[in-house]
Amino acid sequence: MDQSSFSKISNIQLKEFLDEKAVFYEQPKFIETDPVQIPHLFSQKEDIEISGFLTATISWGNRKSILKNAHKLITLLGNSPLDFVMNHKASDNHYFDGFVHRTFNSTDLSYFICSLQHLYNTYGNLENFFNQYKQEETLQNAIHHFKKEFFSLPHPSRTEKHISDPHKNSAAKRINMFLRWMVRDAKAGVDLGVWSTISASQLSCPLDVHSGNVARKLGLLTRKQNDGKALTELDKKLREFDVNDPVKYDYALFGLGVFEKF
User: Fold this and answer.
1) Residue 192: which of 202, 203, 178, 205 has the closest Cα?
2) Model confidence pLDDT, tens digit, residues 89-98
3) Nearest-angstrom CA–CA distance, 191 and 175
4) What is the mean predicted confidence (pLDDT) over 192-201?
5) How far is it, in rounded angstroms, from Cα 255 to Cα 262?
6) Which candidate, 26, 74, 40, 32, places its Cα nearest to that of 54?
7) Which end of the chain is more exposed for a tag (fewer CB within 10 A), N or C?
8) Does residue 188 have a pLDDT over 70?
């Protein structure tokens, strides 16, 4: 089916098309070129959370560069994220000297480790925090509160830009991707499904340039910017197709954009 055909098809046909593409791309081979491969290196829930969160944080730009720097980051943590975080001291910050991914540097990483230690000491794990602020159909409010808590310690102002706030009309692509990894069922071999208290029905699509462009071509999205308002619009449409697991369509939209140049 070519792009010109989509203006003429029904919602039922469009759903069938996207269902097919979602199944096609949500396969273990997907992780070979995707940052989700990093949390797949671990089996302990907290290691998966920390490695996934840090990887998602630097997941913008060239995919090869993302993977290279994410693997380097995990090496800096001694390949034991939870142990490193919980035993971290300010005097250990020199381990991060020279680390940089685009605008995320060693100063940012040092604070991220410090804040993660605070969160784990206070809440036990990241799932407990998000569960506390979840709403019936969305985690966007929980993301807002997460950013507030994450930056509740003294911190460099430059570091705040690395976590987005939906209350400031951000689509919060990277943290929504992290939440997809943690929440969605692991049976297809891509997402990890280590959180049990949050439902896939509460997730939002990790909206980026690829998924946004494809969504517009398919008539799923009219707003031109990839911002929080666009995310709300896309979420509403995807929930019409599958209210229990709307974010499975992230695979279809992303795959069509990146791999099929749709």
Assistant:
1) 178
2) 999 999 999 9
3) 14
4) 98
5) 9
6) 74
7) N
8) yes
The β-bridge partners of 100 are: 105
Could you give phi then psi for residue 161, rounded to 5 degrees? Answer: -65, -15
Do residues 156 and 109 lie in contact, with contact meaning Cβ atoms separated by under 8 Å?
no
Alpha-carbon gap, residue 234 to 219, rounded angstroms = 10
Is the pLDDT assigned to residue 5 strictly greater than 90? no
Report residue 6's pLDDT band, with 50, 70 and 90 as the boundaries.
Answer: low
- Helices 106-123 + 126-133 axis angle, to 10: 70
Judged by DSSP in three states, 170 sits in coil
Distance (Å, whole) CA 69 – CA 72: 5
Angle at 115 between CA 113 and CA 119, to 5 degrees: 115
- pLDDT for position 2: 56
Phi/psi at 138 (5° precision): -155, 155
What confidence score (pLDDT) does residue 75 get? 97
Across the range 84-88, mean pLDDT stands at 97
User: Mean of the pLDDT values across residues 86-114?
Assistant: 96
How far apart, in whole angstroms, are the C-alpha atoms of residue 196 and residue 194? 6
The secondary structure of residue 105, as a DSSP letter, is E
Pairing assessment for the beta strands 100-101 and 104-105 based on DSSP bridges: antiparallel
- Reference 208, options 225, 229, 192; nearest CA is 225
Tokens matching residue 83 = 């142990």
